[in-house]
Every structure is written in structure tokens, then in C-alpha cells.
Fold Glutamine--tRNA ligase.
Amino acid sequence: MSEENKSLNFLEHIIEEDLANGMPKEDLRFRFPPEPNGYLHIGHTKAIGISFGLGEKYNAPVNLRFDDTNPAKEEQEYVDAIKEDISWLGYNWANECYSSDYFQQLYDWAILLIKDGKAYVDSQTSEEMRIQKGTPTEVGTNSPFRNRSVEENLALFQGMKEGKFKEGEHTLRAKIDMADDNMLMRDPLMYRIMYKSHHRTGNDWCIYPMYDWTHGESDYIEQISHSLCSLEFKPHRKLYNWFRDNIYEFSKSNFPLPPKQREFSRLNLSYTIMSKRKLLKLVEENIVSGWDDPRMPTISGLRRRGYTPAAIRSFVETVGVSKRENVIDVALLEFKIREDLNKTAPRVMAVLDPVKVVITNYPEGEEELLDANYNDYEDGFGSRKVPFSREIYIEKEDFREEANKKFFRLKLGKEVRLKNAYFITANSCTKDENGNVIEIQCTYDPLTKSGSGTEESKRKVKGTLHWVSVKHAIKAEVRAYDRLFLDEAPDSHKDKDYMEFINPNSLEVIEAYLEPSLQTAEKGERFQFQRLGYFNVDDDSTSEKLVFNKTVGLRDSWGGK
């Protein structure tokens, strides 16, 4: 085997084998088929990356197809959000398709299956059908309506389409084998009656095709060569092939290529959930502010929190393609966004938990503008002016009256460097009635100005602090996010509901003080607040009230909790 082939994942091996066995490369066609019943989440990025990645690798078209078969749960809002997310990730689809566009063709094929004796109208209740379906260890029993005549089935199915019956009164089922080991093959439903308006077809239909019937035949209509889906669909492959093979006999002259279903493992992430139904519950019960809440694992939530397409795509590539289910540590996703923002985000100064420092020997009323690079380690970021004055804010945790030798920040009698400014020494402090430090009195060395080149400025000092000038600081709201769930696998407990693991402290709202250069920051812009982490401007931000989200800290702080 060549080195190139060794590096292929198993899906690429399947495709290469098909090409070697005579499949024309121009017949390759892939698709990403979301159901528009919720927002895409981080778990979907693997499927998106696989399908669109193969399209890029083989220069083959990739369809974006919405499997919109359930009008009770689907909305145009979800369609629009899915399109925005995929475009934001940097992928382009060849055709925008909808299973609802194929409703007439699916109905016509259902008629042919009825005529062929392979589908029938059942008039049992859903509970009766559930009981007669059997169990994994017991075969099912035939419906009493299984042997209706073709003429009766056609008349009833036509009546279903024309709205002559109530919801649940009749269904259309495929006639396969009630004793099959695979329970999905035991006469599965194909159509049910639903008096719901569809977001695209309106009230044109009152019968809607089931997912298993629709999905595979939509692949067939679009002539998808490789239908790639996650492992939970592996038991469905036998039914997928049954529908495909029977329809192929009717339509091979118009649709010569029968698609092939293959499965890969899902992307499961620790400390979160990957069920759209469960995520919807978080939205509906106001646990979060919406689908795009920055604590949500949705792509829109990650985008709002400050994640980048490059970081997410790198994460998916690192996870890779596999056949076995596993759980990926969320720390890997956080590492990827740190890695990307470390290369791209300008460094600025902000103080989130301030204590005032008064530089007693700095002239009262005087101020100056200091040069500050946006990145000291990379070229091309540029610089800005940062105002300095007699009173500044630093972080409370950066000062202690007394500390051991390993504390390299400000303490009484010791000297530290102020980033882009001067060296200061703490001389005394003022406390409130509770013993909390409310002000620190320091002196500065005017010969230590950063960038001045003086011998004094080259003096070795172990601590460097960020700061902002009290007079010039701008106030902003900072939203600091923690993980939404306290448990590594919140929906894996049989005896507990995942809602029991909600982190009550997943959001902390802070009044912060920022350097004035951030006054003109625009929505979505990302920054490193030096020594604190990576932050971006939230959608709620205005020129009157800046709002920043904490994307991620500079290092993983969760492991120590």
C-alpha cells in the first residue's frame, strides 16, 4: 500500500475502491442533509466537514438538502440559521435542495409499491402497531390489514391524500417481513396523516412521508453516490437498501446511479449535550437566552462567543473520521480556539476586578500617551497609544501586602513593571472597615519608561502587570462563561435528568474597565485581554454600552476544579 493510501480515512478508501472498480469520477456527489428542526451544533460540524471535505478533495458537488418531512417541528428560522452556519464555516454547496420538493415523486413511487404488493394501508392505532411489532427477541405479528387488496389500498391511500380521514386513522406501511431480525424491517411506516402547515408547501399536503422513506429516495433523486451518515443509522442501512432497490426497478432509466450508505462515528463532546430536542428545552425553559447563547454548543452560540471557523475546522480535522463512538474532551476544542486566537487576536488591556493604584510621585493632573504594540511577538499587528496618569486600576489579585517568593506580582516593598509603562513599587495600602484593600500607594521610577532604552528600563523585574488609567478607562459589561453542565456526560445517567447537572454559575456578568482604544471595537471583533484570556464584542454591544464575551481563558483552568 502506498504512503498516500495509508493516510486515507476509511471513507476515502471506500471511494477510492469504487473509482478503481470503474465508477466515473464525475459521478461522485455528496450531500449534507440536516432536518430543519433546530440549530446546528458542534456535533454536526464533523458531518459537515466530512461531506464538504470530500467534495473539496475530489472536486465533486455537495448538496445542502433539508430533510423537511415533519411540519410540526420544522421552521424557516432553522433553515436560515443552518445556511448561515455552513457559509460561516467556509463551505459552499452546489445545490440547495429540499425533500419537500420531492413529495410528488415520493407519492408516485408509493403508488407503484402498492401496485407491486409491497406497501399497504394499515388502520391500527399506533399502540396496536407497537405491540404487534414484537421485540428484538420475539418476532412480530402481521397486521390484520396486511392483505388488503391493491384496489382497496389505492383507494384508501388516495383518500388519505385528499384529507378524508383523521390523523392516526390510517398509515401507509411497507410490506417487508414482520419476522426480520432487524426491527426496522418489520413493515415500517412510510406515510402518516398530519394536518399541519409546512414551511414550504403550505397546506398542499396532509400526508407526510416518514424520514426513512424520504431520506434514501431523496439521495436517489439527487443521484448522491455516497450517502454518509452517523453510526446510529447503521441499523437503517438494510431498510435504506430495500427502498432503494425496489424503487430502482421503477426508475433506473431516469436515475441510473443507486446511492450507497456508509456510517461514521458521531462527534460527542464532554460537558455538553448533542440532542436538538434537549437543547430546545434549554431555550424554552429560559436556562439560556436562545439558540445562540454563548454557553450553547450550537455553531451560532460558538460564533457569538468568539470562536472562529478556522478553530472549529481544525478541531474537526484533529478528531478525524472513525467507525467507533468516543467522547472528545471539550478541552481540545478550547485548545484549538486558543491556538487560533493566539495568532490572530490583538493584545489589549482590561481590568475585570479593579483596585485603585495611586502613583504618589507622578505629578497631579499630568497624563501622557504611551506606545503599545498590539502584539509584541508578531509583526503586522500595528500599535496604538495608551493613556497613562497618576491613578490607575490593576487587578485585585495582582496585589498582596505580604507574599512568598513565588508571588511575582505587586507586594509591599517590591517592584513590578507596568506593561508599556513604568516600574512601580508598592509602599502602603488603604483598607475599608472590613479589611479589604481599596487603594494602593506606589511610587514610580521615571527612568524606567518602556521602550526608552535606558539602563534603568532594562533592569530585571519578574512581574509585569496590565492596567488601565482611571481617568481614561471606559466601562464595559463583560460576560464570563463557564461550562453549562457540571457533569462530563450530563445525559448519560439513567436515574437522573440532564437538567439536574446545570451549572448555576455558568454566567458571571462583570463591570470591567478597558483601555480607551476599545471604544470603537465592532461586533464580532476578537481581542486578547492581556493576562486574562480571549474576548469578543457581543451582538448586544452598542456605542453607549460595550458588551464583551469571554471566549476562553489563556490556559485550561477547569482541570484544577
